Amino acid sequence: MNSRIQSPLLFGFVLLAAWQALVMVAKVPEYLLPAPSVILANIDRTLFVQLGVTFAEALAGFLIASVLAFVSAILFVRFHALEEGLFPIAIAVKTTPIVAVAPLLVIWLGTGWWSKIVAVVLISFFPVLVNAVKGLKAADAEYRELFQTLGATRAQEFRKLRIPYCLPYLFSALKISSSLAVVGAIVGEFVGATQGLGYLIIVSSAHLETATLFAAIGAAAFAGIAMFYAIGWTERRLVFWQSREGE
Amino acid sequence: MPSAPTRLLQVDPLITIANLQVHFGDVVAIEDLSFVVQRGEFISLLGPSGCGKSTLLRAVARLVPSANGCITLHDSGLRVGFMFQKPLLLPWRTALNNVLLPVEIQLGGSVVSSTDELRARQMLDMVQLGDFVDAYPQQLSGGMQQRVALARALMGDPDVLLLDEPFGALDELTREVLNEELIRIWQSRKTRLKTILMVTHSIPEAVVMSDRVIVLTSRPARLIEDVQVKCPRPRTPEDPAIISVMKDVRAMVRADR
Questions:
Q1: Interface test with A, best of B90, B94, B107 (most A CBs within 10 A)
Q2: Contact B88 A150 (CB under 8 A)
Q3: A141 to chain B, minimum CA–CA distance in Å?
Q4: pLDDT score of A198
Q5: Do A148 and B58 make contact, defined as CB atoms within 8 angstroms?
Q6: pLDDT value at position B4?
C-alpha cells in the first residue's frame, strides 16, 4: 500500500478515535453527537436497502442525463442555429435551483421513482452539455483542415476527430455530474418519498435518531464517492492518451 | 551507386496559377500571382513569415474558398497530399492507425483491408519508422511524429505533395535529416509522387532542395522572382554553385525590404 492511501487512512483513524474519546469523556448526549461505535452499530440491512434505492435513482438519472446531454451537444455543434436558440434557455433552466423545482416534480410525477430520476437528470444534464459542447469544438482548426484535405464528411469528422477529442472534456463533466446526481436524488426524496436515503434522513432527524442520521449521511457520501471513482476508473481506460500529471 | 535521376524540365504543366487574388475581409493576402507548376518539379515558395505563402498552398488544396482568379489542375484525377507544419496526429491512434486514417476516410464505413495495412506498414518503413508501427504519438519525438505525418500524406498515393513548412517546428539537425529523406522519397520510383510544392522561409532549405524557388514579397504576396536552380543533385549547402544561388536569392529578398 502506498503512502497516498496510507496517510489518509491513518489520519482518518486518528480523527475517529479522537471523536470516540471526546464523546466518551465529555459524555455528549447521543442525540447531539453519537460516538462512531454507535453509528457503526446503526449500519443495518435497512440502511443498505435505502442506499440501494438512492444509488439506483442517481445512476439511472445520471445515465439518462449523460446520453441526452451528449446527443444534444453533438446536435448543438452540428447545427449552429440550435445552439443559438436553445443554449441560453438551457442556461436559464440550469440557474433555477433544483430545490425550488423538486416539489413541482412530485406534484407532476408522484412520490415514486420518476420524480427523483427527473430531478437527477435536471441537475446532472448541464455540466455535461456545457463541457461536451466545449470539447466538441476543441479540436484545432488545423485538425479540421487536415480532415478537409482528406475529403472527410461531416459525420466522419465527428466520429474520427471531434468525439474522441471531446472525451477528456466529457469525463471531467461526468465526474462533476456524478456527484451532483446523488444530490439530486436526495433532494427529490426530501420533498416526497417513501424510501431512499433522503427519506431516511428526514425521518431520523424528525425522531432525533441522530446515529441513524449520521449513518445515512455516511451512506450518501459513499454513494457519491463510488460514482466518482467508477467514472475515474472508466476514464483512465478510455482516455489513455491524456497525461495524468497533477491529478 | 546509381546516380540520381536527371529530371528534364520539359514543358508539362500540372498546376497553373493565374492572376490569383485572395482577400480576408479588407486584408489582401495574395495579389495578382501567376506561375506554372511543371510535372516532376520540386518548387519552394519562399517568403517572410505571414506573407501569404501558406494561404497560397491552402488555395491550391482548396482550403481557401475566397480565391479569385484561377488555379487549374491539368489532370482531373490529380491526387493532392497536404502536410502541415504540425504533425496533427490523433493521440488515440497508433502510428499505423494514424497512417491508415486517409484510407478509412476514403472507404467510408467499410473495414480497412490487409492490403491497406501492409501498404501503411511500407509507408512507415519508407520514413524509417518500421519499428514504431504500434507506438502512440506521445511516445514519439517531434521529428518522428512528423515522419508519421509524412507517411500519412504518402498513404493517399498523391501525385503532388503540398508542404506547409513541414519541418519548421523541428530543430536544425532533425530538419536537415528529414529534408534529405523527403528528397529521397521524391526521387524514389516506389511512389507516384513526382511534384512537390513546399512553403519555407529558409533560403538554404529552398535553394538546396528545389528545382525552382518562387520568391515572394511580404503581405500581400506578390512574385519577386522565379529562380531556376540548375545545380546537379545530390546537393549540399556547401556546393559553390548552391552558395552562389543562395546569395542571389538573399539579395532579392533584401531588395524587397
A1: B90
A2: no
A3: 11
A4: 95
A5: no
A6: 45
Indicate yes or no: CB of B101 within 8 angstroms of CB of A164: no
Q: Determine, for residues B101 and A160 on separate chains, whether the beta-carbon distance falls below 8 Å.
A: yes
Burial class (CB in 10 A: 0-12, 13-18, 19+), A30: middle
pTM: 0.84
What mean pLDDT do residues A200-221 have? Answer: 94
Q: Which of B169, B211, B203 is nearest to B186 (CA)?
A: B211
Sequence-ordered list of residues with C-beta below 8 angstroms from that of B60, at least 6 positions apart, any chain: B15, B17, B71, B80, B162, B197
Give which of B24, B78, B94, B101 to mutate to test A binding, by max A Cβ within 10 Å: B101
Q: Please write the tens of the pLDDT for every residue from B68-103.
A: 668 888 877 888 899 998 999 999 999 999 999 999
Distance CA B122, CA B136 (A): 18
CB contact set of A239 (below 8 Å; sequence gap of 6+)? A167, A168, A171
- Calculated CA dihedral for residues B217, B220, B222, B227, nearest 10 degrees: 40
A146-150, A232-236, B229-233, B252-256: segment of lowest average pLDDT: B252-256
Q: Which of B88, B102, B138 sits opposite A241 (nearest CB)?
A: B138
Selected residues 33-62 of chain B with any CB under 8 Å from a CB in chain A:
58, 61
Q: Strands B212-216 and B42-46: what pairing? A: parallel
Cβ separation A241–B92 shorter than 8 A: yes
**Between residues A129 and B222, the one the model is more confident about:** A129
What's the CA dihedral at B36, B37, B41, B43 to 10 degrees?
A: 90
- Residue A107 one-letter amino acid: I
Q: Where are the alpha helices (DSSP H) in chain B?
A: 53-60, 95-107, 114-126, 142-155, 172-187, 203-209, 240-256
Q: For position A245, what pLDDT does the model report?
A: 42
Picking from B224, B185, B194, the residue whose alpha carbon sits closest to that of residue B38 is B194
What ipTM goes with this model?
Answer: 0.86
Q: A218 vs A18, A223, A224, A226, B36, CA distance in Å?
A: 18, 9, 10, 12, 76
For B198-231, write each residue's pLDDT tens digit: 999 899 999 999 999 999 887 777 788 888 888 8
Place of cell 488555379: B71
- Asked if the model's pLDDT at residue B7 lies above 70, the reply is no
Q: Is A128 exposed, middle or buried (0-12, 13-18, 19+ CB in 10 A)?
A: buried
pLDDT digits (tens, 9 = 90+) for A180-199: 999 999 999 999 889 999 99
Task: Walk across the sheet containing B223-228 and list its strands.
Answer: B80-83, B160-164, B195-200, B42-46, B212-216, B223-228
Residue B10 has a pLDDT of 54
